[in-house]
Amino acid sequence: MSRTPKALAAVALGVTAGLLVTAAPAGAAARYTPGAPGAGDPYFPDMGNGGYDVAHYDIGLKYDPATKAVRAVTGIKARATQNLSRFNLDFLGPLTISSLKVDGRKAAFKRTGAQELEITPSRGLTKHRSFTVEVAYSGVPQKVDDPALGVSGWVATPDGAIFVNQPIGAATLYPVNDTPQDKATYSFTLTTPKGTTSLANGDFAGKWTRGGLETSRWKMRQPMASELAMIAIGKYDVIFGKTKSGVPNITATDQQLKTPPALAKDFNTQTGDVQDFLAGYFGRYPFSSTGGITVKASLGYALETQGRPVYDLTRRPGTIPRGDLLAHELGHQWFGDSVTPEKWADIWLNEGFATYAEWLYFEKYTGKPVQQSFDETYATPADDDLWQPKTADPGRDNIFHPTVYERGAMTLHALRKAVGDKAFFKIVKTWPEANKYGNASTADFIKFCERRSGKQLDALFAKWVYTSGKPSL
Question: Which class is 235-322 in CATH?
């Protein structure tokens, strides 16, 4: 029997049963106000919303690769941070809502602005109290193709789809508070035609077949930013293993890439080996499972989707990701995924550390010293575009600019030279642990480095991340 929206709704509501809900007292409407329609990030003012904090998303999704259409129910568990008369979710594109309920009661809603789903519950929501949202919808999701930021969101493929969302895209598939500042746990229930594989973030929680359809269940048990959510549907060869340190390790290779079985096995093994290597520098791996997925989807990039990075190998069929690319995306699991920037302007804290993880990989596996990687990058001429944006505020269209990656990594090496190896590697290991599953800014990082090293570092960071132009050594 196929899973209808009604059946999917039961899955979504299963995570929210038993919540305490407090409604607005009679005559108190004046004390209830709308939540903000944005989260306050200057680069993406339409993304995210105010007035509540999401604890969990339960996404129940049925996808037909032949028609490219979905039928879905998303269940949300949240807590009001103010007395709410109404609130917004982000929901982008042509998907049609058939039902929307707050705390089990029908709620009024309308689509406004660029991506706003404005919801007015039948009764106000009291500050500090939990509430649930259930949205049933269907249609053909649309990808985002931004001239500066590339392709993201729901991307259909010949045999399925890939769903990747940095920085824009999550709202193309499910109603969401689409800001890195509101992390939540996730569960996914994915139904596809028999013979089609469905994968997502988190721990594998089972699979079953019914009426010619296959359903898989996945659970991301640690808080995750919406931009790191991932779904892959198609013909995949999946390997279930463990790293040498004992972390469940699930890797999958897209059959369209025609990856030899021996290489697919190497992908699983190398993922575990590189992750364990990085844990020696960065501390214990922060999530309960790991892995990676290779895809043929013409994305043009790899992405650090939480717990299970996605690697687009469209241009390299029959291969697996290079070791330095594994180091980059797995390094993100600590820097960017577990510790996520407060604002998009701080993305160098993601990419600088991930690039430095590449340099550490080169030193370990190829014998190329980190200092050589720094020297080669620093040799870039002063009039090169690398030195033009400010690393800690590159601008909305430059969040993937080389300065964020390369100058970000050089900043970390300059810090290492300034404070010494002992203090530096203490910072590298204790920073992700101190901010585990949270958000942090460049200013937070500078203060942290000063406390751990006992040195005043304003001048160093001023010239490396806050000033345009090539820094002097």
Answer: alpha beta
What gap in Å lies between CA 464 and CA 468, rounded to an integer?
A: 8
The confidence score (pLDDT) of residue 30 equals 53
Residues 160-175, mean pLDDT to the nearest whole number: 97
Protein fold of 1-224: Immunoglobulin-like (2.60.40)
Question: What is the signed CA dihedral for 444, 284, 181, 451, rounded to 10 degrees?
Answer: -10
- The mean predicted confidence, pLDDT, of the chain is 94
- Compute the distance between CA of residue 104 and CA of residue 101 in angstroms, rounded to an integer: 5
CA 374 – CA 412 distance, rounded (Å): 10
Q: Are 232 and 256 in contact (CB under 8 A)?
A: no
Tokens 């109603």 sit on residue: 175
List residues bridging with 302 in a β-sheet: 311
| 436/433 Cα distance (integer angstroms) | 5
C-alpha span between 163 and 434 (Å, rounded): 30
**Among all chains, which residue has been given the structure tokens 């509101």?**
182
pLDDT of residue 23: 44
20: which 2 tokens? 């305490």
> What mean pLDDT is predicted for residues 108-132?
96
Does the pLDDT at position 12 exceed 50? no
Q: What does the alpha-carbon distance between residue 352 and residue 370 come to, in Å, rounded to a whole number? A: 14
Dihedral over Cα of 48, 51, 57, 61: its sign: negative
Residue 154 · residue 161 · CB < 8 Å: yes
User: Given CA atoms 281, 250, 187, 116 in this order, what sign does their dihedral have?
Assistant: positive
List of E strands, 103-202 = 105-106, 108-112, 116-120, 130-139, 143-146, 150-157, 160-164, 184-193, 197-200
Taking the domains of the chain in order of start, what are their residue ranges?
1-224, 235-322, 340-464
DSSP label at 179?
-
Of 43, 322, 288, 72, nearest in space to 178 by CA:
43
Q: Say what the pTM is.
A: 0.93
Q: For residues 390, 395, 400 and 403, what is the CA-based torsion angle, rounded to 10 degrees?
A: -10
CA distances to 253, 282, 341, 425 from 428, rounded to whole Å, are 32, 6, 16, 5
Decide if domain 340-464 falls under CATH 1.10.390.10. yes
3-state secondary structure of 219: strand
| Cα-only R_g, the chain | 23
In the chain the first and final C-alpha atoms are separated, in Å, by: 67
